[in-house]
Amino acid sequence: MVTVSAPAKVNLTLNIEGRREDGYHLLSSVFQSVLLCDTVTVSLSEREGIHLTLSDPLLPTDARNTAYKAAQLFFETIGQPPAVSVYVEKRIPQQAGLGGGSADAAGVLVGLNALYDAGLSLDALCTLGEKVGADVPFCIKGGTAMVTGIGEIIEPLPAMPVCPMVIAKPKVGVSTKEAYAAVDSKKTVFADQDAMRSAIADGDLPRIGSLLCNAFEQALAIPEVEDVVRCMKTFSPYGCAMSGSGSAVFGLFRSESEALDCKEVLLKSGVDAVLCAPAPLGAQVVEKG
User: Is residue 135 among the annotated active site residues?
Assistant: First the structure.
């Protein structure tokens, strides 16, 4: 049995740069792993096949699930018939822009690689992950990175300084398809990627917070997201923004007490909120037995 911690991600910046001929959107975004994570456990099974279960019974357990797809690809790659059980303890909310499905796929690939002593390199795992979803390679590598292309080009950046974070998910969800349709039809202000790189390199949290920028947040203008942002700003964070295609919002705070106060107010208003922090790595084996 192998247990893997599979962190979520937030987007400190996110620009949509255009579209390829095959319809995939090109982006440039600074990704940051966070301590909010799902836990993926893989173990050998006496039954043939891939047997996926999740703590959320509403989620699919077949090839519609990224964790299942990742397992299929792994066994095709090593040329061995599957006989494995996969359990995913979900903590990362759905339709939030936090990469929950991608994190689970990353966790499965890392876990199966360890369980079967397959010896696949990090880059080989990322190549497999790219076939499952654009964010999976980053969720395997993690940390702080500039991500371009459709998500497959990952340039590591210096680690973001540690600070208290609050991640809040309004009740409303956002489909990725709807988000891209909105951003295609509206002009958005571009994030200053060079300035964000410089701020991260300098460890300048106030500047990092001031440079948070997300094209989807501007294009979608979701009232529930705007309400969360307004609430967070009353606690004087370094900055706050929507992550990915939404609808989760994250804030970077000066102190844990301010972050806790913000979290409590959001919870009382009916918004799911957790205290969090940046994470230095992506999917990692935490137990092997």
Answer: yes
* Closest listed residue to residue 239, CA positions, set 158, 183, 174, 164: 164
Q: Which amino acid is at 184?
A: D
Helix 256-268 / helix 223-233 crossing angle, nearest 10 deg: 140
Are 170 and 243 contacting, i.e. CB atoms less than 8 angstroms apart? no
d(CA 162, CA 259): 13
- The topology under which CATH files domain 2-157+280-288 is Ribosomal Protein S5; domain 2 (3.30.230)
At 36, list the tokens. Answer: 């909010």
Q: Against a cut of 0.85, is the pTM above it?
A: yes
pLDDT single digits (tens) 21-44: 777 889 999 999 999 999 999 999
CATH 3.30.70.890 positions along the chain are 165-276
Q: Is 227 a catalytic residue?
A: no
Of 38, 69, 104, 135, catalytic: 135
